[in-house]
Amino acid sequence: MPVTDETDLRQRVAAQRQWYHTLDLAPGVVTPGWFDLRELPARLPIPSDLSGQRCLDIGTFDGFWAYELERRGASEVVAIDLLDRHAWDWPVNSPPAVVQAFAERKGEGVGFDIASEALGSSVKRREMSVYDLDPADVGRFDFVYFGSLLLHLQNPVKALEAVRSVCRGQMLSVDAVDVGLTLLHPRRPLAQLDGLGHPWWWKPNVAAHIRMVRSGGFEMVGSPTRFLMPAGPGQTRERITVAKLRSRFARNAIFRSWKGDPHCAVLARPV
To answer: Of 196, 198, 242, 267, most Cβ neighbours within 10 A?
Structure first.
């Protein structure tokens, strides 16, 4: 059953250093997430009725998508994430201070715990890497949500191969895309490589996102869905200045904070 002590819940939400997801935990109790995804489920190709299905949420963080799959009637939802910062895909040149800063932002999974208790959720969270998904360990799933993680992986295709090994139904791959590369090369798979100092590796155009999914052993179901991932109340709007407008990086940051982060959703099934 959901938590009913609203005062205690408000205090626990306020005490959490940072929330990644904006979550409605109780009437009038909303987490100040970095992103506010609450309008997205209706726009993405997720089955409205998941009754009797086993579902997997990869890179769950505060659990928004895991709870959404549960809300749609899934018989079981498993959510995986990595809390151990040393197990992330860090470039070798990453400064220890940056590693520590990202670890503090991620926290110890307290946000997920608070939300799970408040919502009376039965989602099962496991700490494990997407690379380690094995049907002998976790079984197989009818629906897999794989969101906003490919850009953080050194080897996204290897990760998708692991996902394929545990997917017996459909997978929804949702990730950030490069708008410029998409507009300039709508059919040619291209991606920007970062990999310097922080766990951001690849930002593909839409064609490359699709190619990654296909290379991982999936085939498309329908057409990709492009959308802007809205900033949440926990994300400060970038101040617009002439100096920032001269920088491509700063312009992109301004756009993301005011309009949203360009993403693409690809629904697929194992070949």
So the answer is: 267
pLDDT tens column, 175-210 = 999 999 999 999 999 999 999 998 899 999 999 999
pTM, two decimal places: 0.93
Residue ranges per structural domain of the chain? 6-270
Pairing of strands 54-58, 76-81: parallel
Convert the pLDDT of each residue in 66-92 to its tens digit. 999 999 999 999 999 998 888 999 999
Nearest alpha-carbon partner for 61 in 3, 1, 95, 16: 16
Q: Which two tokens stand for residue 221?
A: 């179901």
Token pair in block for residue 136 = 């002998």
* Strand, helix or coil for residue 125: strand
Burial 216-247 (b: 16+ CB within 10 A, else e): bbbeeeeebbebebbbbebbeebeeeeeeeee
Please classify residue 24 by burial: count the beta carbons closer than 10 Å to its beta carbon, then call 0-12 exposed, 13-18 middle and 19+ buried: middle
Tokens of 271: 């070949």
Q: Which residues have a Cβ under 8 Å from the Cβ of 195 and sit 6 or more positions away? A: 91, 154, 201
Are 210 and 160 in contact, with CB atoms under 8 Å apart? no
Helical residues (DSSP H) of the chain, grouped into ranges: 6-15, 64-71, 96-106, 110-119, 135-138, 156-166, 179-184, 206-215, 242-245, 248-258
Sign of the CA dihedral running 200, 206, 208, 213: positive
Q: What is the spatial distance between Cα 253 and Cα 249, in angstroms, rounded to a whole number?
A: 6
Distance (Å, rounded) from C-alpha 271 to C-alpha 268?
9
Cα separation values, 70 from 49, 55, 76, 118, Å: 10, 8, 7, 14
